C-alpha cells in the first residue's frame, strides 16, 4: 500500500509562515509522500515562494508539486520553481518522478494543465490566433502528461498518479458556476490519463467544487483544493493493481502431480 | 445609485480589485440577491479575511452586504481514504 498525502491552493503569502507546518510535521506518521496541486502562492512572487519553501523544507517525506495559475501571475514561474527546488521540492511540468515505497515504485506525472472545457462544452482550435493558442496551450500540457505517464509505465511504475492544478473532469467542479467550467479544466487532461492509465488523478483550482470524481476510464479524481478538503491535506491509500500471483514451487509441484 | 445594472458593475469592479490587489483573490462568490449582496468563500489567513472585508466595505459602500468568509482549516486529517 502507498499512502499519498495531497493538498492544493494553499495560497501562501507573507502572513502565512508556519500556518501549515505543524500539520506537515505529522506526515511521516500517515503518508509516504506529499503532493502539492498548485496555487501554492497568491501572486507567484519569489517572496511568497520562499514562504512555501520554508514551510516544506526538510520534511521527512518527498514533496512533489506542480504550479498553478496564481504561481504564474508575477510571470516568474522559473524563479518560483527554482526556489521550491532549492528547498527539495520536486516541481513537475510535463515530467514525471518516481518514489520508492517499501520496494514498490510509485510514479507521479505532473503538469499545471489549463482550461478549455469539457466534451460538448469546450473551446476548439478555431478562429482567432488567441483562441487557437489557448486550446493548443492546454493540448501541449495534456500531451506532456500522457508522455510522462507513458514514460513512468515503461520505467516499471505499476502505481501511477497524475498531478495537475486544473481539473481533468467536471465531476469535481460541482458547486462552481457552470459558466466558468471552461476556465477550470479540460477533458484533454482526463483523456491523457485514461490513455495510459493511472490509479489516481489529483487536482486543485476549484475552491467551490467537490472532492470526488472519476474519469470516463474509471480513474478516481480528487479535488484537493484546501477550501474543498477543509484540512491541511488529505491522505489516499493506493493498493495498486492486482497482479497474478507468481506460481510457487509447491503449487507447481501440486499441479504437476 | 442602487439600480440593478449599477450594482452588477460594482460587483464586477469589486472582483477585479480583489484579483488585482494584495489578496489576488479569484475564488470568492459575490452575488446580487435583489436587495442585498452576498460575499462567500474561503481565504488562507485571518489577515486576508480582514483585508477582504475592508475592500468589500469600500467597494459596496451603501449596499446591504452579507459576508460568509471563512479561514481555511489547517488541521491534519484524522483518517485516510482507501482507494482500491
Automatic annotation (TrEMBL), chain A:
A GO molecular function held by the record: metal ion binding
Q: Which CDD domains match?
A: MPP_superfamily
Record's keyword annotation contains Hydrolase: yes
Highest taxon listed in the record's lineage: Bacteria
Supply the Pfam families for this chain: Metallophos (PF00149)
GO CC terms in record = membrane
Q: Set out the biological process GO terms recorded for this chain's protein.
A: lipid A biosynthetic process
InterPro entries for the chain: Calcineurin-like_PHP (IPR004843), Metallo-depent_PP-like (IPR029052), Metallophosphoesterase_sf (IPR051158), UCP008292 (IPR016538)
Q: Where is the Calcineurin-like phosphoesterase domain?
A: 2-208
Q: What is this protein called?
A: Metallophosphoesterase
**What organism is recorded for this protein?**
Streptomyces alfalfae
Automatic annotation (TrEMBL), chain B:
The source organism is Streptomyces alfalfae
What name appears for this protein in its UniProt entry?
A: BON domain-containing protein
